[in-house]
Amino acid sequence: MSTATLPTISNCTVAACSYNHADACSAAAVTIGTKPEAACATFIPLSVKGGLDRVTSFVGACTKADCSHNSHLECTAESIRIGADKADCLTYSAR
Question: What is the pTM of this model?
Fold first, then answer.
């Protein structure tokens, strides 16, 4: 799978995340984990901003096995949205 086929992060409204810049994720890739509510495991709550200046962020991996978009730990959604207080994948859909 190439980055051209990986789902993008269409927006992120988690203001407390170091990778959030103007509702856009600046991490090169994120991992959606198995924490409650399909949380973004790349979430880092620091006051120092991280990430790249210009980037299209992708979903690198998804370990949320019960998500309908998960196929062999890869996200098959066209894009995802991240939000809520705990950096949840708002595109998550139970099988």
Answer: 0.87
Q: pLDDT tens, 49-88? A: 888 887 889 999 999 999 999 999 999 999 999 998 779 9
Residue spans of the domains in the chain: they are: 8-89
Q: Is the dihedral of CA 7, 66, 17, 60 positive or negative?
A: negative
Task: Count other Cβ atoms within 10 Å, centred on residue 4.
Answer: 6
**If you compute the radius of gyration of the chain from its CA atoms, what whole number of angstroms results?**
12
Selection from 76, 71, 62, 57 nearest residue 19 by Cα: 57
Residue 40: count of CB within 10 angstroms of its CB: 27
CB atoms within 10 A of CB 92: 21
